[in-house]
Each structure stands twice: as C-alpha cells, then as structure tokens.
Amino acid sequence: MKYSIAILAAGCFWGVQDYFSKINGVKSTKVGYSGGNTDNPSYEQVCSGLTGHAECILINFDEKIINYEEILSYFWKCHDPTQLNRQGPDIGTQYRSAIFYCDENQQKIAINSMKNIKQSISNIVTELSEAKTFYDAEEYHQNYITKCKIF
User: What tens digit of pLDDT does each residue of 9-45 get?
Assistant: First the structure.
C-alpha cells in the first residue's frame, strides 16, 4: 500500500518522532535532515549550522485515516512555532520550525493552515518551503526515545 508523506521540522527530531509515531493513521516515521545544501550530511555536520539542514521527521501516513491538514494540526501542537531557530534549550538553525511541502496541494494546505494558526498566534516564524531531498539520520537516532525506554 502506498502512503502519503509529510516532512516537518519542529526542534529536536527525537521527541517529534515519538509524538507522531503514536498518532492513528501514521504508519511509519524516520528522522533525518532536509532543507539545506549539503548532500548526505552527518549529525555532526548538521549541528555545525553550516549545512543549512534542519532536523526533520518524514511521516508516512494513510490518508484514509488522517489527512495532511490533520498532520499539520498536530505539528502546531507539538512545538512552539514562535521560537526562531530553537526549541526550548536546543538552539541553532537545525532546530527551526519548518514545513517542507511535497506538492502544490500540500503547499496550499500548509499556507491555509499557517493562515489559520496566525489568527490565534500572530508571531509565527515557521518556514514554509518546497521539500528538498530528505537524508536519513544515522541509525542510532531512529526511534531514539523508544530505544531509551527501559520498561
């Protein structure tokens, strides 16, 4: 079965992946890097701030259960979209808030979603741009929070 994808950046990708992996209709998630100009970056390179990449999550979702608009409604809830290049104690461009749309339909939905959220939160700094290549993060980052749970 073919699923739809969403690529989002909302701070440290560990927590974002854990959050989205529990949502009904989300079939799989991967953490990685996107939005920059360096091919196949490493975590260390992304942390340097020189690659232009953000820590992202790639979400595979079943549109029969959850649509892109609903995915974005969860996105707005899982982080603070008013913090520029940071989330909590994590600071740097790699922690920026961003929606990377995959096609014109996603772009329209994202613009609408941002317009709606700005009615209640006016100082949104979330970047909206066309998706570039998504590079998988190193294996030890995948499902990191789940791996760390001991019970």
Answer: 999 999 999 999 999 999 999 999 999 999 999 999 9
Q: How far is 73 from 77, CA to CA, in rounded Å?
A: 7
Nearest to 59 by CA among 13, 11, 111: 13
Q: CATH number of the domain at 51, please.
A: 3.30.1060.10
**For the chain, how many structural domains are there in total?**
1
pTM above 0.85, yes or no: yes
Catalytic choice (12, 47, 78, 148): 12
Length of the chain: 151
Q: What backbone torsions phi and psi does residue 116 show, to the nearest 5 degrees?
A: -65, -45
pLDDT tens-place string over residues 49-60: 999 999 999 999
- Beta-sheet pairing, 97-101 with 127-130: parallel
Establish whether 78 is a catalytic residue.
no
Residue numbers of the domain that contains 93: 4-148
